[in-house]
Design goal:
single chain; 75 residues; mainly alpha; 71% helix; elongated
């Protein structure tokens, strides 16, 4: 997390350092564990919607859609 600067000049210097790539702390380092978990979650999410759609009957899908439309339009 970036530290807060009390002086406007220090803030300006840190912004320039980040923009030019001189600030080593600002470079985002990707954690391999987080990257793997993210990929795995996406993979499951892509499968889940299709599997749920296949499992639902047309009547049940219609009920869900009507409920969602009512929730959107009730605001």
């Amino acid at each position: 997390m970036a530290k807060k600067h009390k002086d406007i000049n220090q803030l300006a210097k840190s912004i320039v350092a980040i923009a030019t790539g001189e600030n080593e702390d600002a470079k985002e380092q990707i954690d391999p564990i987080k990257a793997a978990a993210s990929a795995l979650g996406r993979k499951g999410g892509l499968k889940g919607g299709n599997a749920r759609a296949k499992a639902l009957t047309a009547k049940k899908r219609s009920e869900i859609a009507k409920k969602a439309a009512a929730a959107r339009w009730s605001k």
